[in-house]
Amino acid sequence: MTLLLQQLLNGFSLGAIYALIALGYTMVYGTLQLINFAHGEVYMMGAFAALYLAKVSGVADNPTIPGAIVVMLGAMAFCAVLGMTIERVAYRPLRNSSRLNMLITAIGVSLLLQNLGLLMFGALQDFPSLLPEARWTVSGVMVRSNDLVIFGVTATLMVVLTWIVERTQLGRAMRAVSHSRDAAALMGIPADRIVVATFAIGSVLAGAAAVLVAMDKHTIRPDMGMTFGLKAFVAAVLGGIGSVPGAVAGGLLLGLAETLVSGYVSSTFRDAIAFLLLILILLYKPSGLFGKHVPEKV
Amino acid sequence: MSATLAVRGLSVFYGQMQALHGVDIDVPKGQITALLGANGAGKTTLLRTISGLNTPRSGSVRIDETELVGKPAHEVVSAGISQSPEGRQVFPNLTVRENLQLGAWIRKDKDGVRADMDRVVGLWPRLGERLAQRAGTLSGGEQQMLAIGRAMMSRPRILLLDEPSLGLAPVIVAGIFETIQAVNQEGTTVLLVEQNAHLALKIAHWGYVLETGAIQKRAPAAELLDDDAIRAAYLGG
After folding, report:
1. CB nearest A185 (choices: B74, B101, B154)
2. Is A296 within 8 Å of chain B by CB?
3. Residues of chain A contacting B74 with CB distance shorter than 8 Å
4. Does the pLDDT value for residue B55 go beyond 80?
5. Contact assessment for residue B193 and residue B47, using Cβ atoms and an 8 Å cutoff
6. Taking 90 as the threshold, does the pLDDT of residue B160 lie above it?
7. Which ranges of chain A have pLDDT less than 70?
8. Which strand (E) or helix (H) includes residue B84?
9. Candidates 2.40.50, 1.20.1260, 1.10.3470, 2.60.40; CATH matching A2-129+140-284
């Protein structure tokens, strides 16, 4: 029982991170039908931006709550700018070309950023504590302060995101553009600006996820976006790509599946479970858990 | 709240295929102009080009003195032209209220937007009963009302309507055409594209006939209603 509770706690913690990153994939897919493979690298760059900020601001030597908030907001802002730049430089010129061209460009941007990271930062770097860390044992289950931070930050961002998507004119426009760019343009909605906003929001979430992971693992690497990004992408597909609640559900499901498998079966299969789930979902429900089945128009 | 639309020498291509051959159209201020034609004549292409969704190879589209060719579609709305597109194109996953709110995207006057939403609901109380419902759950007639209402929310000077009668029961169509006439009488210029020539000509001031991408005829609507050739081709004898 204790083991199960422990695994559930760890699973939700990991799943929350997957969900944050998956939202970026799913929102961009919703508006552009593009799988933005560079999203994982935005996440990676966010971690290094946070490291730099923590060192420069002195938060690395003197961890405090306000300091951690400043570093996190800084990394989020950096990712927003990076995401918008990628959209402007790499994707917008291809807006009217085939989806395959965009996809290949996305892979190219991903490799470029990853190698740029390797060149600039080396293979791996230590990441300092941004907050005083603590751990408690509650009836046999170990609860770490980092878990609480992950839950708190993720929940806050989800509430803000839901508010933007459901309650603001920007959110309505995002949903309209994802349904039909032409119909949205007839409302006077500048689709390009909405696409930029979508990239910015997705990247901000990736930036937050990067800081949460870096604080938790204490090492960051230029290839961290590769594996984590890929799994978050699986989470987005699992939930139904294009669906915001789907990304959250897919992320949590994947996080739980991974920790349960490593807890009860073997940690060797930890990574395999993500792709096993992907294969199963593609075989039996290709539109994902929350996805709509949209027949191809001819 | 009204304007004149002038289309001159408009030619549009889809790849090698020419869809419009130097089309000239005048939509006089404060009136309803009907554009008739069979399927594939180029009616929708013309409306899409006016709205900036298609780029013409040559020609001009002017609202009063402002040239619209070259402007992206979202700026055409700011210039005063709003369209209820073919097939209605309501946003199915958004509620009726959200669809109307997006129609007012270009506006910043919250009170005016609320007043206009009341006006649309006043015209079609059935939309008022369904404000919180997703647009995809509405009937075809209700979706058409929403599409026109949504286009009115930007307070256009010229309203483009693409086949508002398409696929709807005659009694619903009659109601929608009455409302189009009422909106026009409040001062909005209307360009109405229709296959249902009889209905369109009955509320229009002017009529154009478009055939395979070229204007074949322009006359006062009443005259077209009596024209034997038009009767034979578009009015079912």
Report:
1. B74
2. no
3. 185, 187-191
4. yes
5. yes
6. yes
7. 292-298
8. strand B81-84
9. 1.10.3470
